[in-house]
Structure prediction request, 251 residues.
Amino acid sequence: MTIGAQLFTLRTYTQTPEDLDYSLGKVAEMGYETVQISAIGPIPAQTVRELCDKHSLQIVLTHTDPGRILRDTEAVIKEHEAMGCKYIGIGMMPEKYRHPEWLWRFAEDYKEPARKIAAAGMLLMYHNHNLEFQKFGGRLVLETLLESFSPEEMGITLDTYWVQMGGGDVCDWLKALKGRIPCVHLKDMAVRGMEPVMAPVGEGNLPWQKILEVLQAQGGTEHLLVEQDICEGSPFDCLEQSLKNLRALGI
Prediction:
């Protein structure tokens, strides 16, 4: 498994080619091997690829505008070909589908783009938050999504923090999703008073030794991507501390 940085963590510092270049350089200096492209500025795909190549960072996953995946699928595929990236990600379910009366429409809308992406040798990826752990009609939203798409049509980018936030057991869900999680987001949860907060991996309360043991034992996960949406301090420091802690755990 490679260890990468989810660039959403550094979104304030990736809005121009010059800022992206600097930030990628810092990520590479930390020792990361790969990156996920997410929330960067309007930078052409070829330029993004060239900057990543400059710093010997492989692009392994994106979060791409769901509207573009739906309505401009071919262009999205070409952009990912330019970046050398086979995993095309939806970062969050668009708001209109997050309700019982419209959830069914998500699969109806995204089936065709998913099939076009698969035909191009790529895979549509869906990133969970905690909203997928609510129940509509007695079924978890995540269960409905899994039933609506085959593994060849859609993979899951399981996010450890949001599973915990949704009341799920991270290790149980890793096992349940075996074969569907080529990419996993590593994100820790700590507590400040009565509130959960995001923390560098290893600085919170998630059982990282068990999580990593499950991932290693069952196989199928190619890319571990460190993400911290909200940082107490510098996001660069948070990414670096997460990587140090993962290395100390043997990854």
In short: The chain has a mean pLDDT of 97. The chain is about 40% helix and 20% strand. The first strand starts at residue 2 and ends at 6.
